[in-house]
Amino acid sequence: MTKNIPEKIMYADNSSMARNLKEVKKLGKEMEQEKTGEELKKEDGLTPDPKQ
């Protein structure tokens, strides 16, 4: 059943905090590329997650 799941995803450290400053910076760069709620509405017609 896990044959088609890439190894990178299988062993991802989800729900864990960044371990060091290098990882924090890497995650920050990844987040900069994500669309904002307004961009999701306008470009894709999607509803963003509610504020928590």
Task: Explain the overall architecture.
This protein has 52 residues and is mainly alpha-helical. It has one domain (7-44). Helices cover 46% and strands 0% of the residues. The protein is built from three helices and no strands. It has helices at residues 7-10, 21-32, 37-44. The chain is extended. The protein starts with 6 loop residues before the first helix and ends in an 8-residue tail after the last helix. Residues 27-52 are annotated as: Disordered. This is Multidrug ABC transporter ATPase.
Task: Report a brief summary of the structure.
Residues 27-52 are annotated as: Disordered. The protein is mainly α and 52 residues long. The protein contains three helices and no strands.
Provide keyphrases for this structure.
0% strand; 52 residues; extended; 3 helices
Give the SSE layout.
Layout: H1 7-10, H2 21-32, H3 37-44
Q: Measured on Cα atoms, how large is the radius of gyration? A: 15 Å
Please tally the β strands and state the result.
0
Stretches where pLDDT is under 50 for at least 5 consecutive residues are none
The termini sit apart by 34 Å
Order of helices and strands: HHH
What is the number of helices?
Answer: 3
Beta-strand content estimate: under 5%
Overall residue-averaged pLDDT value: 79
What is the domain total for the residues? 1
Give the helix/strand class.
mainly alpha
What best-fitting shape do the alpha-carbon axes yield?
extended
Largest sheet: none
Give helix % range: 40-55%
